[in-house]
Amino acid sequence: MLLGFVTMLAFWRDGVGYWAIGLGYAFVGAGVGFAGTPASHALTGSVPVTRAGMASGTADLQRDLGGAIMQSILGALLSAGYASAFLTAIADAPDGADVSAQVQSQLTKSFDSAAAIAQQHPQYSEQIIQAARQSFVEGQDWAYLAGVIAVTLGGLLVFFLFPKRQHERELLAAYSEADARSAANRSHVGTT
Fold first, then answer.
1. At what angle do helices 2-11 and 18-45 cross, to 10 degrees?
2. 49: Cα within 13 Å, side-chain hemisphere
3. Cβ-contact 157, 29 below 8 angstroms
4. What pLDDT digit, counting tens, does each position of 119-153 carry?
5. CB 119: neighbour CB atoms within 10 A?
6. How many whole angstroms separate alpha carbon 101 and alpha carbon 141?
7. Which helix (H) or strand (E) is 136 found in, with range?
8. Structural domain spans, the chain
9. Which among 17, 35, 93, 132 has most CB atoms closer than 10 A?
10. Can you list the residues of the chain whose pLDDT is less than 70?
11. Spatial CA neighbour of 41 closest among 144, 168, 178
12. What CA dihedral angle connects 95, 100, 106 and 109, to 10 degrees?
């Protein structure tokens, strides 16, 4: 996943070829595939069998909630980066001081809003669209950088704070013994 976000940050620009888009998505897809199954297995395998359903539900919640939170954060960063870059472009423009606060608000709201303003002001259309494109690229860079940071922090968290392989095997063996004792006790109760 880290390679996917780095690919996005380095190569995804206006007019980029499909190879860069496909490569970024391939890295993210492979990363989710490589991380998702072991994460679910680690969570469901870390509890006794009688609690596997609860662990599976927790894994689903973690994936759904974490995904929704990260999408919200990345989307907010994209929007904030876009607005910030567009405000800078307006301030740097020769006629930037003449742009009203209402028009600035529309230009910085979204690319679609900027395109609508460009249609209303054909004499500035090319400059508005170019500024919107550049602002979008700068905004997406904020989001991709946040993705790089989040994945890196997540990897460090797992590496330093989660149990190592041997300790995890010891935990799984202890849970297996507890499950066997519990099953034996249930069968013993059933025969008496």
1. 160
2. 9
3. no
4. 999 998 999 999 999 999 999 999 999 999 999 99
5. 10
6. 26
7. helix 125-161
8. 2-161
9. 132
10. 163, 188-192
11. 168
12. 80
